[in-house]
Design a protein that fits this description.
By secondary structure, the chain is of the alpha/beta class. The chain has 14 helices and twelve strands.
């Protein structure tokens, strides 16, 4: 079952990827004169960019080095370029279709269609390049959000707790070690009582993480009440057992469908990621089953990577849920999709009396870009009234 799910998943992704690339390629090809040297250069460059991500990901399974890094980085930027090329080209094609019903495009543009296509080619290409560079630079600047939350403390022995929430680090090929060290330093500088990592700590394969010893930076995270984490969908994509072993060996206490009592002051519950059903033959506990033994004596903080079915977590007795996964779309206009899919795409909210915080995440997946969302570290000051 697990193998079949993997095959279906990657077949769908690859098919969509190839169709989108063909659409972009064909529109660019039409803009260049037949038989020109420009077409030859365009063909070679397009083939390299469109195949580099796939080639790099396959090659890094067997060998890691500068060539594989170059391929993966080039291909990852191309993933972002694909989005904006597609958006712009779709808008142009819609305008062309609309012009058939209501002519508004100057006739001179249509008569000299070849020149018009070349002008568009020379305008759109640098515009997309500028967009992806600006979006990449945005990933360098982490925002620290300070949030105050008050929940029913019941019999908690603490008046408050300082909790740092970080999600979606995506340790892998696209995470420079010095950046991870800087993030760890920023987290530790907040002097939190407890640190929680809300899934997708690893990107996919462990190879690049081991090769560059990225875990040594994560190992420096410190909080007196501990550093806890949960699984995300990417831990399952890359192999959850190896991911769990690696993270545990680097100081992260993974809570997998279990509950721990912290300092006799609150329960910290961690759910397995919902993708467990897709990538294994197991199923995760329901929120009700997970929290049934927490009792009413202490408040409950629930960690669930993907913020689905929030009302079920509230009904099960969670006082606060912390999640990630959405990246708030990561790049505009994908944020409109995440807003439609999730009740809370990012930030603070409340569902049936349960408070919720969904983090933007601090890393990136796919293109190393953020547009319309900032990487964030969340410092929650939780008051137990």
């Amino acid at each position: 079952m697990r193998t079949i799910n993997f095959i279906i998943f990657y077949t769908v992704v690859l098919t969509v990827y190839l169709l989108v690339n063909y659409y972009i390629f064909s529109r660019g090809w039409q803009s260049l004169s037949s038989g020109s040297k420009g077409r030859t250069i365009y063909l070679v460059l397009f083939l390299f960019l469109s195949l580099s991500y796939i080639a790099g990901r396959i090659l890094e399974r067997f060998w890691l080095g500068p060539p594989t890094n170059f391929l993966v980085w080039s291909g990852s930027f191309w993933l972002g370029a694909m989005l904006y090329f597609t958006l712009i080209l779709v808008i142009i094609d819609i305008m062309r279709l609309a012009n058939m019903a209501l002519p508004v495009i100057p006739s001179a543009w249509l008569i000299n269609a070849e020149n018009t296509r070349m002008v568009l080619f020379k305008t759109i290409t640098p515009a997309v390049f500028i967009i992806i560079m600006v979006a990449h630079i945005n990933t360098w600047f982490t925002k620290i959000n300070h949030i105050d939350i008050t929940i029913d403390g019941r019999n908690s022995q603490m008046n408050s707790v300082s909790l740092v929430l970080v999600s979606d680090i995506h340790l892998g090929s696209l995470t420079p070690k010095n950046r991870i060290s800087r993030i760890v330093g920023e987290i530790n500088s907040l002097e939190p009582d407890i640190i929680v990592l809300a899934g997708d700590i690893l990107d996919e394969d462990l190879g690049p993480v081991l090769h560059r010893d990225l875990g040594s930076a994560i190992k420096n995270l410190y909080a007196p009440l501990g550093v806890y984490g949960i699984t995300g969908n990417h831990e399952y994509i890359g192999g959850v057992d190896k991911a769990t072993e690696y993270l545990t060996s680097h100081g992260i206490k993974l809570i997998r469908d279990s509950v721990v009592k912290i300092n006799n002051s609150f329960y910290l519950a961690g759910r397995e990621d919902v993708s467990i059903n897709m990538f294994s033959d197991k199923t995760r506990k329901s929120a009700k089953e997970l929290l049934k033994n927490t009792g009413d004596d202490l408040p409950v903080i629930l960690l669930d990577h993907q913020p689905f079915n929030l009302e079920k977590a509230a009904a099960a007795g969670a006082d606060l849920q912390l999640s990630g996964h959405t990246h708030h779309g990561q790049v505009w206009p994908i944020n409109f999709i995440t807003r439609a899919v999730y009740d809370i795409s990012r930030g603070y909210g409340e569902v049936d009396g349960m408070q919720v915080y969904v983090s933007n995440g601090i890393g990136t997946w796919g293109p190393p870009m953020r547009l319309g969302s900032r990487p964030e570290i969340v410092n929650l000051k939780i008051h137990f009234k």
